[in-house]
Every structure is written in C-alpha cells, then in structure tokens.
Amino acid sequence: MNNKVIVIGGGPAGLLTAYHLKQFGLSSLILEKKQPGQSWREMKDGMVMLSPAVAQHDLTSLTFRNPIWSAVKLQGAFATKEEFLQYLDIFIRENKLSIKSNSAVSKISPIEGGFSVHTEEGKKYEAPVVVVATGVISNPHIPNIPGVRGNDRVIHSREYGSFEGYRGRRVLIVGAGNSGAELTVELSGICKLTLATKSRLKFYSRTKDLSHIRGLSESLLKELISFKIIDLMEKVEVEEIKGGTVLFSDGREKEFDKIIFATGYRPYLPDFESIPLKISKSGYPIVTSTCESKSVKGIYFTGPLAHTNRYCSFIHCFRPMVEPMALHIAESFGN
Length: 335
Prior knowledge:
Blueprint: E1 5-8, H1 12-23, E2 28-31, H2 38-41, E3 53-54, E4 57-58, H3 68-71, H4 81-94, E5 99-100, E6 105-111, E7 114-119, E8 124-127, E9 129-132, E10 154-156, E11 170-174, H5 178-187, E12 192-197, H6 204-207, H7 216-226, E13 231-234, E14 238-242, E15 245-248, E16 253-255, E17 258-261, E18 271-272, E19 299-301, H8 315-333
Parallel strand pairs: 1-2, 1-9, 2-5, 6-18, 9-19, 10-17, 11-12, 11-17, 12-13
Antiparallel strand pairs: 3-4, 6-7, 7-8, 14-15, 15-16
Helix pairs in contact: 1-8, 5-7
C-alpha cells in the first residue's frame, strides 16, 4: 500500500484533509471524480459566496496559513465562485497535494489490513485508511411527492440555468432557504412568480443563524414581499403535482409552467461493498467525535458528511474538525 490514506473527493474538505495529513507526516492520495472543486465548477457563473473572505473576519479560507485573501486578488469582501476556484488551485499547488482527477469511485471493499477503492475507470487503490469527503452537492433532494418523478416541468435549483428560459412564464419556487431566496430575487419581474415554504421565512438579520436567508437576497426579498411583486405562500406544502397543476396543503390549486425545488441536498456516498456501515435515518454516516465511523475502523467522513451538527456544510464550521481527525488517523495508523 503506497499511501497511508485514500481521500475520496477533491472539494474543500478533501483538500483540507490531505493538507493536515501531510502536516502529520502521512502520505495521501485524493481521488476526484472530475476536477478539484467540481461541485463549485458546476455552479452558475458569477455566484457570490455568502461567507466573508477578509482578514478581519475570514469564514472562507481552508487554513489561516493559506488564506484566500492573500492568495487571490479579491474584488470584494465576499469571494465569487471563480475566485474561490482559483484559490483551490493555488492551495493544491502550493501544498503539493497528490490528486488524481477523472477518478470516480465506484465502490470500496474490505481487504486484509485496510480497504480497496475501485474507480469507474477500472483502477484500484489500496490503503489502511479511507476518508470520504464526497459531500452533499452531488445529490440534490426533491421530496417524494406524487407527480414529481418524470415530470418535465419539475427541476431542482441545482439545474437552474439562466433567467431567460423563464421569461413571462408562471414559476413556482419551493423552499425557504438561501437558494430559494436567491432564485426568487433573480426571477422577480422576469416571470409570474410564487414562492412556497412549509415554514415561515427566517432571516439572518433577525435570528443571527448563518443557515438562514442572508446577504443581498435578504433585503431584496423583503422588498419583493412588501410590494407584493411575488406571491408568497408560507406554511404550506406541495401535496401533489398533476402536470403543471400543483395541489397545496391549504386546499389551493395553481397552474405553473415550471416548478423549481430549492429543497437542499442529501449525503452522496460511494458503494460500501460488504462493509457494515451504520447510517442514520437522515442518511448520514454515524461517526465518532474524531469523524471515524462508529461501525468500521479505518473509515472516516469529513466535511458535510461528518454531520455532527447542521452547520457542517459551511467551511468555517467543518474546518476545525479536520485537523483533530487527521491527528487521530496519524496516531492510530501512522506506524
């Protein structure tokens, strides 16, 4: 086994894992299904991150030794998608991280002394430790509502392209988070727009909860609601969709040309062949305080998959958990 650790996923969590393992003297190989930061590359151009990236209040950098504001000439306090991808490329290069692109993992199987990681290209890599950092963005979630599957009017917000395709149409956005808010702001005035949420909208300015609606979309969305430019339906759920007709839990029925579910994501996991991995009801691996699987020694999960709290999707929230995990791996498997 040439590498002590195989890291699956070349996003922020996977790169940070390889960085800290190197600090503790462990070799690792990152297997990335396409290109480093692929999930970010697939996001719409010009997207601006919600968390600040300035020296005074840095919630975006992977480490403070390699801050984004030092590596990249930022145009503002909040990095764009393009600036963040530039930062990831610099981070890989400066820290000499070993990564194999276009290496999508198909399965992980047990072998004596560790694990065998198989790729869709037919290659196999072996190591005593595997860290899974595949995140959630690759697995968009749409509730299992009658009439959703196979309905060509229904998409997830991840599939949203440009507002031009919605001009003059009747559009329903389902979801009360940042994605739903941003899409509502972008499409307002372009189409006849309805925003439906199963709970009341929650805004960061009131709650100080980073998972709630924030940024420019917060103030603009409040204005759109105040001026009744959009039709806001709070505390209702979509119960059924018949073609373009949506049946809501309050008894109303409305017709739409396009229905966008901004309803989040679920864990994206490779196939664990013959490995008794314990998974929670919500689909997340059950892990220890050092991110190791509670059921399988030598398999770790990091980033959003180490779901110790609902903030794990944010870089500044999973950032503190990666170094202790790497230290635990070094102490347990470093000999």
